[in-house]
Amino acid sequence: MSEPRYRGRFAPSPTGPLHFGSLVTAVASYLEARTRRGEWLIRIEDLDPLREPPEATGQILQSLEAHGLFPDEPVRFQSRRHDAYQAAIDQLLASGHAYRCPCSRKELAEHEGRHPRHCRDSPAALADRPCAIRFRLHDERCHWTDRLLGPQTQIVRAEIDDPVLLRKEGFYAYQLAVVVDDIDQGITDVVRGSDLLDMTAQQLQIYEALGERPPTWLHIPVILNEQGQKLSKQTHAPALDDSRATYNLVDALTALGQQPPAALRTDSVNQILQWACNHWNYRAIHLTAQ
Ligand code: GLU
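A: This is the predicted complex of the input protein with glutamic acid.
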């Protein structure tokens, strides 16, 4: 069987405007797709309106455009994909890979992560309380290979780590939506920040439960601020200044270990991306900071 054509994506959650850390991830996934002669998509993971200022999606898309990062297909929005997520949940419930769970975080913590109401094992015993739907993990010492970081081992703890797929408040969760959409969009290769490394083993089990082949993963080091914290909305990472796009791109390439010449800053966005495609070497990434 021939290998499917490379398809990659950048999948930001619109909790705020694009910051330097997310630009680095976007650039890495874009360059991987371009140099592998593949397609590159943008997916807005807008699953939680309570954490997403309404203007963030527009700001992110505008910033990506200002940096010359254009997708090969129309942008996908997870907020328009609820039917697909519900269908996956129905499938997982029917096959016994998911279960209804009324336990609060506090109750779980008081029982060391175990479900006091036995919802995992005896659904009939559920009280009339609002329920989340969780994925039923199986205990496993999971082995997989990251394209950059090499062989990974993760211990998956059934019950204790069972991820929520649908929250009690009715919101579909990241762990479900990311897998359903990566499958539906035919994503073959995921490039993302290593803050998501720990999620990978759980996602592998969801692929398996849905009977689908997982993509490869390449996790790039998270960009830290001067205090050693991950650049994110929580650590008040500043929004990118789109009027300095050429500077931002050269800085992103430097953070990715690509050693762009400083003179590149005065070139156009397209010239910089062309230079980056000609010189891209993902193995250089881990030579820079963790
Ligand atoms: N939406 C996730 C985030 O912004 C990334 C999803 C992924 O790349 O798997 O953190």
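The first strand starts at residue 7 and ends at 10. Residues 11-13, 45, 178, 192, 196 surround glutamic acid (CB under 6 Å).
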